[in-house]
C-alpha cells in the first residue's frame, strides 16, 4: 500500500507552502555563522519564544480535530472528547513524571522528540515531496532515526555545553542536583560512539535509498535536506537552531498536513490561496493555543523552582511542550496509520 494524501493539491503548491520556507530559513540562519558573525545569546532564544504563538505550539492545538478529519469524518464532540481524554491521561502521567524523576523525564523528552520529528519528515518526504525511494519498513525506520537525530543528536555532538545548559535549566525547575544523573551523556567517549553509530546510519540509509530510487531528483532532495540540516545543526547554536527548525520546519510541515485533511483548506490551496488555508488553521488552533498558554502559566505555580529569567521561562515552556508532545505523538501516529505513511 502506498501513502495516501490529497494529490489534488499540486506539487508546486506543496513545495512552496510546506517545504521551501524551512529551506530558506535554515540557509538564512546558517549564513551569519558561516561568515563568523555571532548572534547574542539573548536573541537566540527569540524563535523559541515566538513559537509559543506562531506555528510551534499551535501546530499541536488542532489535534482534537485532526484524527476525525484524517478519517474523512466531521469531528463530533465524542471524537474531540477522546483526544482530550488522551491528553489528560498520557500528558497528566508524564507531567507527574517530571516532578518525580526530572532527569529521566528529560531523557524521555529527547527520545520522543527524536522519533516525532523524524516521523514528521517521513510524512513530508513521502506525501508532500512524493519521494518514492523509501520502499521498505527498515528504510522508513532508518529515515525516521536519521531525520530525528539531526535536531536531537547533532547539537549534543557539536555543542555539548549548550545542550547541558538547557538540560540543567529544565531539570532544575524540579531538582537542581538531578542533572548529575545524565552527566554520562556529555562524556567524550559516549559522544564519539553516538557520532560513529549515527554517521553509519546516515550513510547506510542514504545509500540504500539511492539504490532504490526511481526518481534520482527526489533522492537528491532527501540527501540534500539531510546533509544540509546536518551542517545547520553542527554550525548554529542549538537554542536558535532548534527554535527556527521547530517553527518553520517541523511545525509548518505538520500544518500543511493538517490543511490537506481539511476540505475547505484544501480547496483554498487548490485555488492557490494559501493565506485563506492558513487563516482556517489559525482559527482552528487559536482556542487551544490560548488554553495551553494558560496552563503554562499554571505550571509556573506548580514547579518547585519557578523561572526568573528568559532561559528559565523557556525551560518551563519546554517542559510544557514535552508534556503535550507525548499525546501529540499518539495523535500523529494514528494519522500515520490512517494515511499509510509507514506501509
Ligand atoms: C531547545 C534545546 C533542546 C531541546 C529541545 C526540544 C527537545 C524541543 C522539543 C520540542 C517539541 C517536541 C515540539 C513538538 O513538536 C536541546 C536538544 C536539549 C538542546 C539545547 C536546545
Ligand atoms: Fe509535532
TrEMBL record:
Record bears the keyword Transmembrane: yes
Annotated positions binding Fe cation: 59, 116, 250, 254
EC number, UniProt record: 1.13.11.63
Localization per Swiss-Prot or TrEMBL: Cell membrane
Cofactor(s) needed for function: Fe(2+)
Domain of life: Archaea
Protein name: Probable beta-carotene 15,15'-dioxygenase
Biological classification of the source: Archaea, Methanobacteriati, Methanobacteriota, Stenosarchaea group, Halobacteria
Amino acid at each position: 500500500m502506498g501513502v495516501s494524501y490529497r494529490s489534488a493539491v499540486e506539487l508546486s503548491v506543496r513545495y512552496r507552502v510546506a517545504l521551501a520556507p524551512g529551506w530558506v530559513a535554515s540557509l538564512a540562519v546558517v549564513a551569519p555563522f558561516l561568515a563568523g558573525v555571532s548572534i547574542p545569546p539573548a536573541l537566540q532564544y527569540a524563535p523559541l519564544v515566538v513559537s509559543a504563538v506562531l506555528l510551534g505550539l499551535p501546530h499541536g492545538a488542532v489535534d482534537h480535530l485532526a484524527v476525525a478529519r484524517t478519517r474523512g469524518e466531521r469531528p463530533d464532540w465524542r471524537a474531540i472528547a477522546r483526544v482530550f481524554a488522551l491528553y489528560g491521561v498520557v500528558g497528566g502521567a508524564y507531567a507527574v513524571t517530571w516532578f518525580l524523576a526530572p532527569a529521566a523525564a528529560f531523557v524521555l523528552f529527547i527520545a520522543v522528540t527524536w522519533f516525532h520529528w523524524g516521523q514528521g519528515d517521513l510524512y513530508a518526504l513521502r506525501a508532500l515531496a512524493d519521494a518514492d525511494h523509501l520502499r521498505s519498513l527498515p528504510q522508513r525506520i532508518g529515515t525516521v532515526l536519521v531525520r530525528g537525530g539531526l535536531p536531537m543528536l547533532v547539537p549534543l555532538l557539536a555543542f555539548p555545553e549548550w545542550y547541558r545548559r538547557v538540560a540543567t535549566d529544565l531539570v532544575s525547575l524540579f531538582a537542581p542536583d538531578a542533572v548529575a544523573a545524565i552527566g554520562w551523556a556529555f562524556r567524550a567517549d559516549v559522544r564519539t560512539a553516538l557520532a560513529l553509530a549515527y554517521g553509519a546510519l546516515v550513510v547506510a540509509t542514504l545509500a540504500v535509498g539511492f539504490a532504490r530510487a526511481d526518481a534520482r531528483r527526489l533522492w537528491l532532495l532527501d540527501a540534500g535536506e539531510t546533509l544540509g540540516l546536518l551542517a545547520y545543526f553542527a554550525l548554529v547554536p542549538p537554542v536558535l537552531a532548534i527554535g527556527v527548525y521547530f517553527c518553520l520546519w517541523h511545525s509548518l510541515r505538520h500544518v500543511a498536513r493538517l490543511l490537506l485533511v481539511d476540505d475547505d483548506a484544501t480547496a483554498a490551496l487548490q485555488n492557490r490561496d494559501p493565506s485563506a488555508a492558513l487563516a482556517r488553521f489559525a482559527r482552528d488552533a487559536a482556542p487551544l493555543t490560548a488554553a495551553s498558554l494558560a496552563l503554562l502559566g499554571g505550571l509556573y505555580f506548580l514547579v518547585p523552582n519557578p523561572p526568573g529569567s528568559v532561559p528559565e521561562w523557556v525551560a518551563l515552556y519546554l517542559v510544557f511542550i514535552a508534556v503535550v508532545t507525548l499525546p501529540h505523538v499518539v495523535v500523529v501516529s494514528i494519522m500515520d496509520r490512517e494515511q499509510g505513511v509507514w506501509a
